[in-house]
Amino acid sequence: MIDPLYIPHEYYLTGDLTIGGMTSQLLTYFEVLLFTEDPKRKQVDEPMIVLKNFQHVLALVFAVKEVNKNPKILSNVSLGFQIYDSYFNAMLTNQNTLNFLSTLKRIIPNYSCDFQTNLMAVIGGLDSETSFHMANILSIYKIPQSSKKALNDQTLADASLFGIISYERSHKSTVTYCFFVPVMKDNAKFPIVYQMVPNEENQYKGIIQLLLHFQWTWVGIVALDDDQGDRFVQILTPLLSQNGICPAFIHRLQIFTASEDMTDIFYTSRPREILRLLVNKTEVKVFVTNADPHTVMVLKWFLYLGQMEEMSEAVMGRVWIMTAQWDFSLQTFDRLLNIKVFHGALSFTVKSKEVPEFQNFLHILHPHWPEEDEFLRVFWEAAFDCLLSDSNTDEEPGQCTGEEKLESLPSPFFEMSMTAQSYSIYNAVHAIAQALHAMYSARNKYMEVIQGGNMESPILQPWEIYPFLRSTSFNNSAGDLVHFNAKGELETAFDIVNWVTFPNQTFSRVKVGEASRGSEFILNDEFITWHKTFNQVVPLSVCNDNCLPGYSIKKKDGEPFCCYICALCPEGKISDQKDMADCFKCPEHEYPNKDQDQCLPKVLNFLSYGEPLGITLASLASSFSLVTVLVLGIFIKYRNTPIVRANNREITYCLLISLLFCFLCTFLFIGKPQKLTCLLRQTTFGIIFSIAVSSLLAKTITVVLAFMATKPGSQIRKWVGKRLAYSIVISSTMIQAGMCTVWMSIAPPFPDTDSHSIMKHIIVECNEGSIIMFYCVLGYLGFLATVTFIVAFLARKLPNTFNEAKFITFSMLMFCSVWLSFVPTYLSTKGKHMVAVEIFSILSSGAGLLGCVFSPKCYIIVLRPNLNCRNHLIIRNAFTTKSL
User: Fold this and answer.
1) Same domain, 818 and 768
2) Can you give the pTM of this predicted structure?
3) What is the CATH number of the domain that holds 319?
4) Cβ-proximal residues to 410 (8 Å cutoff; 6+ apart), any chain
5) Model pLDDT for residues 297-344, shown as the tens digit of each residue
6) Which of 33, 322, 747, 883 has the most neighbouring CB atoms within 10 Å?
7) Strand-strand pairing, 42-49 and 27-34
8) How far apart are CA 407 and CA 506, in angstroms?
């Protein structure tokens, strides 16, 4: 067991100003358990090395060298650096932080003796816990100042890639590229904080938008069982609920910090429980993971154990969503981990670009340069599985030639392109350099203007870097603008990256989207490669099948709100999207289709000339009109014959003409209702039919009076004549006309639409205005018809050859039957059929009057003219009188 306490792993490159920092756990010492077919354990002491994190060191070295080569930045000052490993260990982090504050490698803070580096900034690790432990110490101690030395002899405290600025306590400026634990946002303790990453809230919003984009509502949450895991779960869970997403499970990975913990965990049922959870929750296809380095290390360890237990295939076919701390890397212990489990994973990364010359810088590295680089030697031996010739070992290892190429390493172990984390370190170094340059320039100008340059420059105080760091804004060599917002956060966005793995244990990054401030979210689905088990179809991760359009969700009792059943929409309502909470009605001008998943436009419903029903009724009306004209023509032609003259010829003409107009008025009911046609429909029909019926009444009364007048001494003779008949017709018609006038005055009919009575149609109709007046008009017609029927019925057996009463009786019987059946039929139909019912009633009643009254006479006039003579009628009349 190698004790890391005695392996500081310092990396020195000293200069006038020095940046010190912690690496992101390059070396983490554990006992690694290697298992063979033999169930007995074999324990080997081997450091777990995160090879990829060495790029963070190289990014810092490259950035410092780039600053020192640039004559426009700190032209008279050079930067150096010191690097310590944090080992994922709080105690070692605290110890190495104190090393920054001490001299001669002895931890004596605030004591300056002999040689001391001129510390200007401290770079924290990727893990926020590491940076938090550093900040706790750096916020306590003040660093002694040398009062008579120039700027390059002064000690400015802690402008770090994690760090703090405090005027009263530590006088330290701090910059970080990790996400803060909540206490780090405590302005009382850490008033000024600078991050080389965007606001973390944007990342959580991006996760929610990503889940909503693919409609993943049933997801698993994986986090470490520590403070960071608690914070991740506490922030994410409410956001999921607010957006209709349910966590199927929240699994907390067990923490281990030593080889004994790993051994105990493996030989318990804990790993198997985790793998069974991943296997049994088959409907959970999406896992959201807090991808900080420690969590990822533990997760990969469990997956590695599952692979050894031949359960790895069972956890394939999942979509892993990783936070921005994720960097696809493998430690030396998990080289055998099958990385295809992460094929198709999606992660958030800080937006970055390729930095020119960085790859050229990597190409010139070799294990013997620089000699004081302890990390490079350890990295080289672990990466290429060899030992350098001067390594102290008793084994016979493979020798490193020094000609090994970094580009030959698989991407999970080392990448030649700069990662997002390294890019943040690179920007942080330049931000600090720009702030120091601005501060140094401002102080020199101040001394020249105020003091004339004759006095020695006063000692620069460490906190003076703060206003310059706060206002730092520059374009880096990649062309990105680097500046902080008012909260000390980098103004940039998160990239959404799709991770594609290959059989040779390599991978590629594919940028598929972007999440930035506010609700800005862009995702290109077509660029995403899913795990092969999905066959390039977007995975489903729901508690149950989606409710298709036409259904609405109904919550299951005792289940999370994401688990529900699908209920068919009630009649008249639809749902046009998946998983709708409730069905809704279509707009008035639309109706639901058969599947109740969309609204179709309603068809205008009115009786038109272009449809069969309209054509039929129009043809009947035309035919009856022609027949009426023909009958009228016959009666006019034979107007002087006895049969025409016997029954009041003028009233007969009036009846025929009124019947003609009755048939013609039906054309007012066919076609799309207009304002004029609506006004004329019922009034014309009512008045004309009143003329027709009153004409029949007049003819019947005339017959009765004529018979009564033939009796000796009768006083009724003076009433017999045309004036009585005309009076009956005119008075009856005027009453109907009066009612129609009142109707038109108070509430006239008007064109209207009805979109509710018939589901698929919008009825275009004439609103009768006053329904009372409409039924008054019909009622008056019924009254006239009833009176006419009664009179005709009583007069049907009068002994008069010219008596029409029996024919009028039959005609009025038909007329009353038609209109009595009309009322319930009219009320029970809608739309064009209601209009058709009224037209049919008009035509049938008119045809009944025409046929019953005039067909016998036409038969005699046309076919039996020999009967149409006075002598025959006198003889017949005498015979009829004798029979009575």
Assistant:
1) yes
2) 0.64
3) 3.40.50.2300
4) 504, 505, 506
5) 777 777 766 666 655 565 677 899 998 888 777 665 556 677 788 888
6) 322
7) antiparallel
8) 12
